[in-house]
Write a structure and sequence with these properties.
Blueprint: E1 4-5, H1 29-39, H2 45-56, H3 59-79, H4 81-100, H5 104-113, E2 118-119, E3 126-127, E4 130-138, E5 141-147, H6 154-158, H7 161-167, E6 172-179, E7 182-188, E8 214-219, E9 224-227, E10 234-237, H8 246-260, E11 264-270, E12 286-288, H9 291-311, E13 326-332, H10 335-338, H11 343-359, E14 365-371, E15 387-391, H12 396-403, E16 426-430, E17 437-442, H13 447-457
Parallel strand pairs: 1-3, 10-14, 10-15, 11-12, 11-13, 13-14
Antiparallel strand pairs: 2-3, 4-5, 5-7, 6-7, 8-9, 8-17, 15-16, 16-17
Length: about 475
């Protein structure tokens, strides 16, 4: 019977066997176990620590320490889920999945079924690509770093990606080459969002609006997906139909009373002629639908920023009030302003945006840009946005452009999000604490809910229609 070698990527000839003549005997199990332990010395750390504790401290003290650690972990998980999910849960999850899903006979069997093992024709030994590390950044995505068998390449694996996904019972698998002979196999185990997230409730009073944690959707842990406006600038990238509108209207719903009471002023630039935002025009302090109007708006915003800087008199930051409201500049279809417009308009817009993005943090000015193609040619000021969000995009390269190098390797498969309405609003953002990608779904705000928002929080009166005969 042929045996499987897990510890090596090159066939190992039994002691005494001549390489030129095949042997049906494999390396002894005890030697394979010893070699495995030499490669994974930390596997012995826990039992060695327990044995040492039993010898030096006795069973009662050792049991009390172990029980206390278990109780502390359980208490942390139950008492403060956000910090537990950010810091400890990924490590525990990675360890568990490393030894239950991607090790031993299970892993070897999966690769054998997908024709991803190599057999030595002379010795009959089978070489299985070795798992180097597993990272489970989120409950639904694993990144498995694999050293390929000699003779394999990236194409060998990408051609078998669908078969590998089915063998692992995964939603999909994406494969990227990290360095020579090493791949990152991103396993999306499930799609966590099987329903549309309802629009956030419009707060009753301004006191209920939290500018540091606006509820705009739900993350894959089932917790609210929140954003902080003061001191931040947001770039949202997504293909047509990916749900960028959800990240326009959800923040506006969460801000409603603050807009009405003058604590937040929304400056809207909609370069699709107002198609996306005209329904909420009465909410906006300034409204621009052409490049020329947009440049005038940005110029005024820059001048107000400069005036606030001059009036700060040594203060490091302003406080949101009716005298110094938070200015939110929303730019839909930003590429028409930064790349595809008249050359003179593009240069002026880029100059104004660069000035605002680099200096406006302390003056209560936030820019929120929305774009389909996030390349440098289209968004030259991309790196100046402090928070970047990636919805469904059309290219794998766009993911790292938006979220940073290695984001897709760590599980941000934004290019794999289907472009149909059932998946609109799903995207990824980098967690500021762990630097890991977190998947979310933005809330969907329909026309009736936009009308309700305008009715309750508009700052401009409705436009009165003229009589049919045109008389004033």
């Amino acid at each position: 019977m042929r045996s499987v070698t897990f510890h090596n990527l090159t066939p190992v000839h039994p002691v005494g066997a001549r390489p030129g003549r095949g042997s049906h005997r494999s390396t002894g199990r005890e030697w394979r176990v010893l070699a495995w332990l030499c490669r994974h010395p930390r596997f012995l750390l826990v039992p060695a620590t327990i044995v040492t504790g039993l010898v030096l401290l006795g069973p009662i003290v050792t049991g009390s320490i172990v029980g206390g650690l278990v109780l502390a972990v359980v208490s942390w998980r139950r008492g403060h889920p956000p910090s537990f999910d950010r810091f400890l849960a990924p490590r525990l999850r990675s360890t568990r999945r490393r030894w239950t899903a991607y090790a031993g006979g299970r892993w070897a069997g999966v690769l054998a079924e997908c024709d991803l093992v190599r057999e030595n024709r002379r010795t009959g030994q089978v070489t299985v690509p070795r798992v180097l590390r597993v990272r489970s950044s989120t409950p639904s995505i694993d990144t498995v770093y694999v050293r390929m068998a000699r003779g394999q390449d990236l194409r060998t694996w990408t051609e078998r990606a669908e078969a590998l996904a089915d063998a692992l019972l995964a939603h999909r698998v994406a494969i990227t080459r990290i360095r020579p002979a090493v791949l990152a196999v991103v396993v999306e185990r499930v799609m966590p969002f099987d329903r549309v997230i309802p629009a956030p409730e419009i707060p009753a009073e301004t006191a209920d609006v939290d500018l540091d944690a606006l509820d705009v959707g739900e993350n894959e842990y089932g917790d609210p997906f929140t954003i902080r406006l003061p001191g931040k600038h947001f770039l949202t990238a997504g293909a047509s139909g990916s749900g960028k509108g959800s990240l326009i209207w959800s923040p506006l719903c969460a801000l409603g009373p603050a807009i009405r009471d003058g604590l937040v002023r929304v400056h809207m630039i909609d370069l699709k002629g107002g198609v996306e935002t005209r329904r909420g025009a009465r909410l906006f302090h300034r409204y621009a639908t052409t490049a020329r109007e947009a440049i005038d708006l940005l110029t005024d915003a820059r001048d107000e920023m400069k005036a606030r800087q001059a009036a700060m008199d040594g203060d490091r930051a302003l406080t949101v009030s009716q005298e110094t409201p938070l200015n939110v500049i929303m730019i839909d279809e930003m590429a028409m302003l930064t790349a595809h417009g008249e050359r003179g308009d593009v240069r002026e817009a880029l100059r104004l945006l660069a000035e605002i993005l680099t200096q406006a943090r302390a003056t209560l000015t936030t820019v929120m840009g929305y774009v389909q193609e996030p390349t440098k040619d289209v968004v030259d000021v991309r790196e100046l946005f402090t928070t970047r969000i990636c919805l469904g995009v059309t290219s794998a390269a766009h993911v790292d452009m938006v979220l940073g190098d290695g984001a897709r390797e760590r599980g941000a498969l934004a290019d794999q999000i289907p472009g149909d309405p059932a998946h609109a609003g799903i995207g990824f953002v980098i967690d500021t604490g762990s630097r890991l990608p977190v998947r979310f779904r933005a809330a969907y705000v329909d026309d009736h809910e936009i009308d309700e928002l305008v009715e309750r929080c508009a700052i401009h009166p409705p436009v009165r229609a003229l009589p049919e005969n045109g008389a004033a």
